[in-house]
Predict the 3D structure of the following.
Amino acid sequence: DPKIIQKPKYLVAVTGSEKILICEQYLGHNAMYWYRQSAKKPLEFMFSYSYQKLMDNQTASSRFQPQSSKKNHLDLQITALKPDDSATYFCASSQDRQGYEQYFGPGTRLTVL
Amino acid sequence: QQKVQQSPESLSVPEGGMASLNCTSSDRNFQYFWWYRQHSGEGPKALMSIFSDGDKKEGRFTAHLNKASLHVSLHIRDSQPSDSALYFCAVSSGTGGYKVVFGSGTRLLVSP
């Protein structure tokens, strides 16, 4: 059974729209993360959460907003989508925030037209 | 801003051969170096971490860290076609808030 679920697997959006990427982990981990992968930047750290609290934000744009409704959920809301946002977005989790292996989900591939 | 440099960008080795990947960080306050592997269409998966000088071996994989030069290498012996993937070096650091910075990756192709 998949331990980290990301939905949807593929997503096509139009410029200016808003989308939410879903992530759920069933590993019992306390820390969750979002990363972005594109041809321009192979794997870029975006956010980290620990016990549902935002700990680190390396994203310059406020258009990206993580949302944690439950300890094992970390969704990513993206507003005012731009073609440059096209990328694969990976959710990851680890036992705790520092020094632990991160487990990655299968990713959501977002294409903005 | 911390940088993680990987070399080579791509590497081709025959089945059964040795693959050697390199990584250098600019952050002297690192906590761990990590190696991750990503097969096409999947998320990255951790292979191993290292934080002490010297070698760490896990099966066919050996990481070597030189803290003075902030350089880590990954050696894969008896390479298999299933080892063909994108390999990332990542550095975890507490500098400016805890984060993990990934290098740009080395694409390994193991040919039968």
Summary: The CA atoms of residues 17 and 102 of chain A lie 31 Å apart. The longest strand of chain A covers residues 87-94. The mean pLDDT of chain A is 93. The two ends of chain A are 33 Å apart (CA to CA).
